[in-house]
Design brief:
Blueprint lengths: L1 E9 L3 H9 L11 E7 L7 E8 L2 E13 L3 E6 L5 E9 L12 E9 L17 H28 L8 E4 L2
Antiparallel strand pairs: 1-7, 1-8, 2-3, 3-4, 4-5, 5-6, 6-7
Organism: Natrinema altunense
Pfam families: Polyketide_cyc2
InterPro entries: Polyketide_cyclase/dehydratase, START-like_dom_sf
């Protein structure tokens, strides 16, 4: 299993941050590759999200199930189709890191564990002469850039303004 663990600081309390982290239907605003999110459920454990992704000549709908919600601290998920992947959004208070112009701060963690070679090759319609291994090789380096974009836009929504966001990489495949 490969693992990505990233974090950043938001200048708000966990109670203010968590609703943004939890609102997956807003995520298409944070990335160019997520075209639409559809939800079955209320957003609590058991809710299923269809995430319609598009990159290059590929399109794919990932189906993700929320496995646990412990507001305002944690939300865990698992993909339920075509690839072995699971992860967590976690929000921890970190008031000591707040800048002078902010009352408090929280650290937002994103963790994903996945096996890129567990993908069902029949689930993705690949162009002729393109292998799944080639796609995995091209996508993996883009994950960090994509994560950075998502985090910057998410923090801008949380704080109500855009700023430079420091992305801490704790673990990367």
């Amino acid at each position: 299993m490969d693992r990505i663990l990233l974090s950043t600081l938001a200048h708000r309390s966990p109670e203010e941050v968590f609703p943004y982290v939890r609102s997956f239907t807003d995520y298409p605003r944070y990335t160019d590759h997520l075209k639409e999110v559809r939800v079955e459920g209320t957003g609590n454990a058991g809710s299923v999200y269809d995430l319609e992704l598009a990159w290059w000549k590929l399109s794919y709908t990932a189906r993700s199930r929320v496995t646990d919600v412990s507001a305002p601290r944690s939300l865990t998920w698992r993909l339920v189709n075509d690839i072995d992947a699971r992860g967590e959004w976690r929000v921890e208070p970190e008031p000591e890191s707040a800048p002078p112009d902010a009352e408090t701060a929280s650290r937002i963690y994103f963790e994903a564990m996945y096996d890129p070679h567990s993908a069902d090759t029949n689930a993705i319609s690949l162009p002729r002469f393109v292998s799944l291994d080639w796609v995995v090789e091209k996508v993996q380096p883009k994950l960090l850039g994509e994560a950075r974009t998502v985090v910057e836009r998410l923090v801008a929504d949380i704080e109500g303004r855009q700023r430079d966001v420091e992305l801490t990489i704790h673990e990367m495949p």
